[in-house]
Amino acid sequence: MHYKEEKIKGALKFKCTTRVIKPTFSYFSEDRATTNAWPDDVMQGYFAVVAIKGEESKRFIVRLEYLSDPAFLELLDQAGEEYGFRQQGALTLPCRPQELQKILDAPKQRAGNI
User: Fold this and answer.
1) Where are the domains positioned within the chain?
2) pLDDT(17) > 50
3) Which family is it part of (predicted)?
């Protein structure tokens, strides 16, 4: 089995797991103190990520389908190398927000060219 196939199978395994178990996390803000709550803007079939590079950061809500996108999987590999695998809350990706936006827009652009 090729490395890329293993990465895709791992992503699909994650996808299946997220459908069975609704993940929870804790967050705390000044205006709303909540623990073990799911953010209102993250619907079923989506997950939150934060793209951070230097001083730039932006939060994104991403469809689970991106877990099979090769470019997104590459960012996940980089996140694992840089931050480890025990992140809590939104997944942190080591890239500029504009770079992640390009990856998220790519399927839309391909669909428009068909």
Assistant:
1) 3-112
2) no
3) Belongs to the ARG7 family.
Average pLDDT over residues 23-44: 55
Residue 45 phi/psi, 5° resolution?
A: 90, 5
What is the identity of the amino acid at 12?
A: L
33 exposure class (CB count in 10 Å sphere: 0-12, 13-18, 19+): exposed
Output the DSSP codes for 57-90. Answer: EEEEEEEGGGGG-HHHHHHHHHHHHHH-S---SS
From CA 4, how far away is CA 18, in angstroms rounded?
21
Amino acid at 47: F
The 10s digit of each residue's pLDDT in 48-70 is: 999 999 999 999 999 999 999 99
